[in-house]
Amino acid sequence: MRMKVFVIAALAFVSLVSVIDGSEHEAQLSEFVNDALFSSVSSKQPSQPQPLMVPITVINGAAAKGAVCLDGTSPAYHFHPGSGSGANSWLIHLEGGGWCNTIRNCVFRKTTRRGSFKFMEKTLPFTGILSNKPEENPDFFNWNRVKIRYCDGASFAGDSQNEANQLQFRGQKIWLAAIEELMSKGMQKANQALLSGCSAGGLASIIHCDEFGSMFPKSTKVKCLSDAGFFLDAVDVSGGHTLRNMFGGVVTLQEVQKNLPKSCLNQLDPTSCFFPQNLIQHVQTPLFLLNAAYDAWQVQESLAPHSADPSGSWNDCKANHARCNSSQIQFFQDFRNQLLNDVKDFSKSSPTGLFINSCFAHCQSERQDTWFADDSPLINDMPVAIAVGDWFFDRKTIKAIDCAYPCDTTCHNLVFK
Ligand SMILES: *[C@@H]1O[C@H](CO)[C@@H](O)[C@H](O)[C@H]1NC(C)=O
């Protein structure tokens, strides 16, 4: 059996947990898990060609529009121009990286690349859906491709401030300033456009999908892809609501409700309207959900975080799915069933697309090994890149839902050491 395991160098993970005593440590730990999960370069890619490295661009005049990172510095993006048949096609990819939900962890975030331009890498590798090589990215390689950096801590959707702690919560303004600048750089003439994003950026691509669509004329083909953005309002291993509590903090602190769909807010509280399960029915623009059924971030941070399992009885299982016992696997199956139930109506609508594979993974569009490679994950023999391309170009209907764990032998499951 071909079982690929992708080991994440998270040596300090288990020992860190035992010394956590405050939200700053939680924030650091969370950042650490995020860094591990978002690393687009897997430790097991010896023979990959050198990825395209793309320099950062500061958004002109963003600060004058009040569009700033948590610490007041300018937001930024990485842009690689399209060519040939892709010269008028645009892919806008929103970076992910968790959220900040308290003054304390937002203040901490100002000292990281997720909260300040000062700490951002000034070049980034473009791999997977961002790759410029047709053999790595068959449908989007020659498009104009943009990765917008994430430095607001609320999925590009907050709009408030905290003066006492010199915090700016300007995600919505960053989103608008970035799109405005890209429009002026040629995106206004796009004949097709795809808004994508992973994790917190995948949630942002759902939140901003219709707004993105409305910026183009009707004749432009516009769609959205959410990768690992389907965060469930789920019960954790102690019966609590870890993620709902966290999202509640994000929404309240950053005043995210200002930018959530009114049609949702008429029915539900703002925190509920930050969850994709309650948002997707309000999205009119064609949307594709790419998600691992046992999303590695949600397993780590929503279902079995340290706070819900202080004795650490889930540590082995959450670090490596192969070490889970039968009741733990059942807990994950219930989580998958909740996910499938939440996307049931969505999948019936014809313009939507789905790729829900039964893997312990996170962010499968940005990593080359999961997007498109000789041994990349498959559902019905179809890799992620082909599923997304076929859906975008209306070549096929894609509603790919995998059989339950452990049936899929093509997964690139994340394992934490
Ligand atoms: C599985 O592991 C959990 C956590 O250690 C434990 O509480 C539970 O009793 C175990 N279940 C079985 C069936 O062994």
From TrEMBL:
Function: Hydrolyzes acetyl esters in homogalacturonan regions of pectin. In type I primary cell wall, galacturonic acid residues of pectin can be acetylated at the O-2 and O-3 positions. Decreasing the degree of acetylation of pectin gels in vitro alters their physical properties.
Transmembrane intervals: none
An example molecular function term from Gene Ontology annotations: pectin acetylesterase activity
InterPro entries in the cross-refs: PAE/NOTUM
Broadest EC class assigned to this enzyme: hydrolase
CC annotations in GO: plant-type cell wall
Biological source species: Arachis duranensis
Family: Belongs to the pectinacetylesterase family.
Subcellular location: Secreted, Cell wall
Pfam family, one: PAE
Protein name: Pectin acetylesterase
Gene Ontology BP terms: cell wall organization
Superkingdom in the source lineage: Eukaryota
Signal peptide: 1-22
Enzyme Commission number(s): 3.1.1.-
Keywords: Cell wall, Cell wall biogenesis/degradation, Hydrolase, Secreted, Signal
